[in-house]
């Protein structure tokens, strides 16, 4: 018993933290598969021991909300659904009853209230008992009716979500890979819980009804299907659904499994809701689950195969990621031969070796992953040479995670990514010059150094003859290069790839040296460390970069073909002389780069670490125990939310 209780005590905080991150903060600490496995283990231990510890996620529903939105208690608690991955168990649960089978949508649950035919209130699920009032935001949802024919009091529940096409469109507009959203649910969570409804409006959020809670004076003839049809007649989009019984359930599940391949709405399973309203409600509920509905989670389809090779893929940063190559297997209707292994630590934890028998699956039916290594030979060699350039590799250990790097600064893999960064929006902003196009030009021998990019029109005839190009392409490229050649020092500093100098630090350096590139190139380590946010490590990197003869020549050549112009500043500079540090997740701004730009437009500087020179730490969670929060409190530096900063600027 002692061992079981100890394991339960280990599982509870892990599951609670993961659930809090997922439901309250829009983050993911583990995959659904990992969460379900740990949850099922805890549930089995509780059933085995007869003990349910305080705080167990098997008896609690949700977590306290964390934003500054107004809070309101739900008239009826919003419980989770019990779940199964077994179709036979689903049939047994349904018995001789009829039920509605529908998608289990993966967004953010919202409760809507209408009175007199008008939308008067929208509240998020929150912790199931208390939610956040988001009425102005809900009114910006793309498909929500503001007025309906029914004039009585209506309360319904549904899922706010962002479709896959809209998610991809929004992510495509974010240049910084690190700032892109991980999945539609994370994006939706942040979009719905905004303090500025204009941000929500720009995110194309949609609402799909899945439950009618109250509709005064309407007779639904004891039918859930009738409720859904009535809601559709009022103008709501209702979650796609069909009536089924136990005999037809396997076929229905199979059809939904097929449909998910092209379904545009994020879904992580199915819901079975009893058609007979009175019978379903007579079943009551447990402390956590209603008994009139159950969720079906997709059982990850696994296949056993043989690991044949590991491809080591190099990137601009020098990071070399392992990718597993195995005998073809069929998963979720497609042939799969490759899966990311992420890093050296994961490869070693799996005990990989060429020829091992492994199990693979598609996470959320999409992303191939290795779930288990049956052989665990542990014989996988870690390459000592970069697969691209043959340069020496190095294993780096950061917080217990081992990653492989190429140490050759001239590695072609680094160059193509470096040129892509050079041309990107926050750098030289060369419109239309993609990584694929750069790769072609490098292969043709047109580009050997950054300045060569601006000399590409000299190869106009050759470029026009390349497959996929033409005279119009050359005209467009020439104009884009002409526009980009008039640049600013922050853009240029970010573009040339000085180690550790991103877009924010580039602006700080430019301001500190009055946009004088010559003065910056002459600067000593001591001078650089007087600049806010530039410590000794960064200063050494800057000095070494400018002292490198090859880098110096490349920069001279670049300065011969571009013109550095002063940046325009806003007339009012409310944050002039103030230094900001940003930490934690954002609610108002699309990403950290957007907040940095907003602060800098108003005269502020943004650095990466809290010091005695910091004016303010921006963090929406002032109670966080993060390193930056603790440092700010020690130094007496105020911690303000985005909304407080917006009010000042």
List the helices and strands and how they pair.
Elements: H1 2-24, H2 32-49, E1 71-73, E2 83-84, H3 87-94, E3 99-105, E4 108-115, E5 118-124, E6 130-132, H4 135-138, E7 154-161, H5 164-172, H6 184-192, H7 197-201, E8 206-215, H8 224-233, E9 241-244, H9 249-259, E10 267-274, H10 277-282, E11 293-297, E12 302-314, E13 319-331, E14 334-340, H11 344-349, E15 357-363, E16 367-373, E17 393-398, E18 401-406, H12 412-423, H13 435-443, H14 450-454, H15 460-464, H16 471-484, E19 486-487, H17 489-495, H18 503-512, H19 517-522, H20 525-528, H21 536-547, H22 549-559, E20 563-564, E21 579-582, H23 592-601, E22 605-607, E23 616-618, H24 627-635, E24 639-640, H25 642-648
Parallel strand pairs: 2-11, 19-20, 21-22, 21-23, 23-24
Antiparallel strand pairs: 1-6, 3-9, 3-10, 4-5, 4-7, 7-8, 10-11, 12-13, 12-15, 13-14, 13-18, 15-16, 17-18
Keywords for this entry:
35% helix, globular, single chain, 649 residues, 24 strands, five-stranded mixed sheet, OB fold (Dihydrolipoamide Acetyltransferase, E2P), D-amino Acid Aminotransferase, Chain A, domain 1, alpha+beta, Helix Hairpins
